[in-house]
């Protein structure tokens, strides 16, 4: 799961840059860089990875990522098959680290923004009204130019700093231990798992992708991701199961097998371990919120 170090100097010629993405699927690899990044997913579904956190994403997902925090958005398998009508769309805003920390924070009244930037090293998932307001600004900013675009960006930073509904994503003890040279090997492993977790995954095959023995690969994975490889696979599978449980026409047993588990016993055990609920309890909780 090693991310790639990305140099954004070619992107951030100015203090910030807004990029709109429309593609059959997101093509970014698991990577990190030295600047701040705000990602708004407009359309598509899949798995989002921020540091040691793996979870589902969908349209409306908004995350603020700090410097050197590994991140990636991997679409669900149907997007890679380029099924008709499926598109991956997002708005990505890059903020140059030096500009934010040396210029913007020097402005009067920037205390809340400073706290936001400190928290961004763990990744922040935005929710509620603040997310809606920021999304609206970003969608309309694409039509702005010059000073109006700069004003929009400062409004986004203000809304971010004032947000009260958000979630910190990585564990408080998470540390990025990756370096640039290891990126390609582990990224191939990561992509393999996310495309094949619904089937049986053999440790020997994954270790071969990383060009390691199974034992060496397990140690390597645990050292750099701070979790066991088997834990990671089950984490991905349970996240997928949570999404499938939203579909009322799918039985729990079908959700189990379509998520990659070979038995209901294991499925129920790991579902309870990761969510604190049984699959049926989880589904009832969803229904009660509707």
UniProtKB/TrEMBL annotation:
One of its GO terms (molecular function) is DNA-binding transcription factor activity. Pfam families: HTH_18. Residues 187-285 form the HTH araC/xylS-type domain. InterPro entries: Homeodomain-like_sf (IPR009057), HTH_AraC (IPR018060), HTH_AraC-typ_CS (IPR018062), RmlC-like_jellyroll (IPR014710), RmlC_Cupin_sf (IPR011051). Keywords: DNA-binding, Transcription, Transcription regulation. The keyword DNA-binding applies. Gene3D superfamilies: Homeodomain-like, Jelly Rolls. PANTHER family: ARAC-FAMILY TRANSCRIPTIONAL REGULATOR. This is AraC family transcriptional regulator. The lineage of its organism: Bacteria, Pseudomonadati, Bacteroidota, Sphingobacteriia, Sphingobacteriales.
């Amino acid at each position: 799961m090693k991310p790639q170090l990305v140099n954004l100097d070619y992107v951030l010629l100015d203090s910030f840059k807004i990029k709109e993405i429309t593609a059959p699927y997101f093509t970014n690899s698991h990577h990190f860089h030295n600047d701040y990044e705000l990602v708004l997913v407009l359309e598509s579904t899949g798995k989002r990875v921020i540091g040691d956190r793996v979870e589902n994403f969908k349209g409306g997902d908004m995350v603020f990522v700090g410097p050197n925090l590994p991140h990636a958005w991997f679409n669900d398998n149907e997007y890679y098959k380029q099924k008709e009508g499926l598109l991956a769309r997002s708005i990505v805003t890059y903020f140059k680290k030096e500009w934010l920390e040396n210029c913007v924070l020097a402005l009067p009244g920037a205390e809340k923004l400073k706290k936001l930037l400190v928290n961004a090293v763990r990744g922040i998932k935005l929710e509620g009204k603040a997310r809606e307001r920021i999304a609206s600004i970003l969608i309309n900013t694409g039509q702005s130019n010059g000073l109006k675009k700069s004003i929009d960006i400062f409004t986004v930073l203000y809304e971010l700093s004032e947000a009260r509904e958000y979630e910190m994503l990585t564990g408080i003890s998470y540390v990025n231990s990756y370096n640039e040279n290891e990126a390609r090997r582990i990224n191939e492993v990561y992509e393999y798992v996310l495309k094949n977790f619904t089937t049986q995954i053999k440790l020997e095959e994954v270790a071969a992708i990383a060009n390691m023995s199974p034992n060496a690969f397990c140690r390597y994975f645990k050292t750099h991701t701070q979790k066991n490889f088997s834990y990671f696979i089950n984490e991905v599978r349970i996240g997928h199961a949570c999404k499938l449980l939203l579909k009322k026409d799918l039985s729990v047993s079908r959700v189990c097998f379509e998520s990659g588990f070979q038995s209901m016993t294991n499925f129920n055990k790991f579902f309870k371990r990761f969510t604190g609920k049984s699959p049926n309890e989880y589904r009832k909780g969803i229904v009660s919120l509707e």
